[in-house]
């Protein structure tokens, strides 16, 4: 078998594996996706990762900030549909770290770093970040990424069995990263932005503050990785998408306020 035919066969196997990504399930925004793992398995993985993070990074000793973060988290979780709200025992930790970051893991584990509170300067902006992170959980993004990785490993394993050269495997790896996995991750980030925008509005937070949040993020960021090579959309692209969805989010806010949702979390 020639190098060219090896390359062609390996490519075919990898593409066939990746094609499965469009065949198994749908995200909340109706994007086709694959999720190979059970809810229980992903929740266990999330709980284990959360436990490890808490061992490696101390919780904040700022009691007032901790209460503030808990308050925002409570409102965001309360706005979830009942099935998603009750499937987990939701938990949040404020970590003593200057990172400007937050996360949510399968199993209902939320982490916020103290550094984020210097950029997300009010309850609405903090809710935008938390709702975005919870959006990843609602859309099964961790499951999806784990599933992608498993399928990718299968594809490369088969390519190696077929005798693909190291040069071919490296080319496939670069092509897969640039052509599939990085854009796919940016898609997940955009999806979480839009899910989060709706969720924060349903919780009674001002959705237009999500724009202000990204303005703050852009002002506080250093030199950025080019968007083509980044797993995250640029701040300007995120803000454009959020603005396009803002009228619908404002209607969600009106309905939430009519139900009596008026968060008052004080830092």
UniProtKB/TrEMBL annotation:
<dbReference type="GO" id="GO:0051603">
    <property type="term" value="P:proteolysis involved in protein catabolic process"/>
</dbReference>
<dbReference type="GO" id="GO:0016020">
    <property type="term" value="C:membrane"/>
</dbReference>
<dbReference type="GO" id="GO:0046872">
    <property type="term" value="F:metal ion binding"/>
</dbReference>
<keyword id="KW-0482">Metalloprotease</keyword>
<dbReference type="InterPro" id="IPR001915">
    <property type="entry name" value="Peptidase_M48"/>
</dbReference>
<keyword id="KW-0378">Hydrolase</keyword>
<dbReference type="Pfam" id="PF01435">
    <property type="entry name" value="Peptidase_M48"/>
</dbReference>
<dbReference type="GO" id="GO:0004222">
    <property type="term" value="F:metalloendopeptidase activity"/>
</dbReference>
<comment type="similarity">
    <text>Belongs to the peptidase M48 family.</text>
</comment>
<protein>
    <recommendedName>
        <fullName>Peptidase M48 domain-containing protein</fullName>
    </recommendedName>
</protein>
<dbReference type="InterPro" id="IPR051156">
    <property type="entry name" value="Mito/Outer_Membr_Metalloprot"/>
</dbReference>
<keyword id="KW-0479">Metal-binding</keyword>
<keyword id="KW-0732">Signal</keyword>
<feature type="signal peptide">
    <location>
        <begin position="1"/>
        <end position="25"/>
    </location>
</feature>
<keyword id="KW-0862">Zinc</keyword>
<feature type="domain" description="Peptidase M48">
    <location>
        <begin position="66"/>
        <end position="245"/>
    </location>
</feature>
<keyword id="KW-0645">Protease</keyword>
């Amino acid at each position: 078998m020639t190098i060219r035919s090896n390359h062609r066969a390996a490519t075919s196997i990898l593409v066939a594996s990746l094609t499965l990504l469009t065949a198994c399930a749908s995200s909340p925004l109706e994007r086709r996706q694959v999720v190979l793992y059970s809810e229980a398995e992903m929740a266990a993985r999330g709980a284990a990762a959360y436990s490890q993070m808490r061992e490696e990074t101390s919780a904040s000793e700022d009691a007032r900030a901790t209460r503030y973060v808990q308050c925002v988290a409570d409102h965001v979780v309360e706005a979830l549909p009942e099935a998603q709200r009750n499937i987990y025992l939701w938990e949040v930790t404020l970590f003593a770290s200057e990172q400007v970051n937050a996360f949510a893991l399968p199993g209902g584990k939320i982490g916020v770093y103290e550094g984020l509170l210097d950029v997300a300067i009010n309850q609405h902006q903090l809710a935008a970040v938390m709702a975005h992170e919870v959006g990843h959980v609602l859309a099964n993004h961790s499951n999806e990424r784990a599933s992608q990785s498993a399928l990718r490993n299968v594809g490369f394993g088969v390519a190696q069995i077929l005798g693909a050269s190291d040069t071919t495997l490296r080319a496939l790896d670069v092509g897969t990263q640039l052509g599939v996995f990085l854009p796919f991750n940016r898609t997940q980030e955009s999806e979480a932005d839009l899910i989060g925008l709706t969720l924060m509005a349903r919780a009674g937070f001002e959705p237009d503050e999500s724009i202000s949040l990204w303005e703050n993020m852009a002002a506080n960021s250093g030199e950025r990785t080019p968007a083509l090579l980044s797993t995250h959309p640029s701040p300007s692209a995120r803000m454009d998408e959020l603005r396009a969805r803002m009228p619908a989010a404002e209607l969600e806010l009106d309905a939430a306020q009519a139900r009596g949702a008026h968060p008052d979390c004080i830092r």
